[in-house]
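Today's session is about reading a structure prediction critically. Students often jump straight to the picture, but the first step is always the sequence itself: look for stretches that repeat, for charged clusters, for runs of hydrophobic residues. Only then move on to the predicted structure, which in these notes is written as discrete structure tokens rather than atom positions. Here is the chain we will use throughout the hour.
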Amino acid sequence: MTTARRTSPDQLVLDVALPESTRPLQFRLDAATRRRGLAHIAEIRRQAAARQARRGADPATRGTRAA
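Below is the predicted structure for this chain, in token form.
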């Protein structure tokens, strides 16, 4: 028996406008929650980009992972 392995985790999508009836109740978000979630994701992306830029600018850390 073989089992298929996932290559990526499931992710809740915040920026797709689906009709209310297609979303299960536990995944419905109000507009304020959606905006906060999108703002949080944007902040995480900014932090990751800044970290990547610092890593690329510092030759001592190039090719290493930060702890």
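Discussion point for the tutorial: Residues 56 and 62 are 6 Å apart (CA to CA).
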